[in-house]
């Protein structure tokens, strides 16, 4: 009985601490390449808006608040902050997460690509 408890505790501990976090650290260099899919509409320079808002400093920013950009009513009303979790959901399927968004991009289906591009966006300070 004691042995089975030890095995259970060991397996539970290994499973708990060896699983990767929901949003693993991405690769900044790979994320810069993934960003090529975004740069037709977004710039990374502060205050440089294009069809979409500048993504400089987007991680941690309240949605719909980039200076000088005219957001859709849906995004303004979204009342969310661009955390890694929210960016993952949005980048996977923007129109599903925020119905009525103007963002025409279909999304990044690959979790790795989302991890990488978010790591790249986080690096822009």
Examine the secondary-structure arrangement and name the CATH architecture: Orthogonal Bundle
**Alpha carbon gap, first and last residue:** 55 Å
Mean pLDDT across the residues is 85
User: Which consecutive residue ranges, at least 5 long each, have pLDDT under 50?
Assistant: 3-21
CATH structural fold name: Cytochrome Bc1 Complex, Chain D, domain 2
Q: Helicity range of the residues?
A: 40-55%
Structural class: mainly alpha
**In DSSP terms, counting alpha (H) and pi (I) runs of 4 or more, how many helices?**
6
Overall morphology:
globular
Number of separate strands: 0
Largest sheet: none
Please characterize this protein's 3D structure:
By secondary structure, this protein is an all-alpha fold. It has a single domain (26-123), classed as Cytochrome Bc1 Complex, Chain D, domain 2, CATH 1.10.760. Helix content is 43%, strand content 0%. It is built from six helices and no strands. The protein has helices at residues 2-18, 28-34, 73-76, 84-92, 94-97, 111-123. The longest helix has 17 residues, at 2-18. The protein is globular, with a radius of gyration of 18 Å. The protein starts with a helix and ends with a helix. The model is unreliable at 3-21 (pLDDT under 50).
């Amino acid at each position: 009985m004691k042995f089975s408890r030890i095995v259970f505790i060991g397996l539970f501990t290994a499973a708990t601490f060896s699983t990767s976090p929901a949003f693993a650290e991405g690769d900044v260099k790979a994320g810069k390449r993934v960003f090529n899919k975004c740069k037709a509409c977004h710039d990374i320079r502060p205050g440089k808006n294009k069809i979409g808002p500048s993504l400089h400093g987007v991680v941690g920013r309240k949605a719909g608040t980039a200076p000088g950009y005219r957001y859709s009513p849906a995004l303004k009303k979204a009342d969310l902050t661009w955390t890694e979790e929210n960016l993952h959901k949005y980048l996977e399927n923007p129109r599903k997460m925020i119905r009525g968004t103007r963002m025409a991009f279909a999304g990044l289906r690959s979790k790795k690509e989302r991890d990488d591009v978010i790591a790249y966006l986080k690096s822009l300070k």
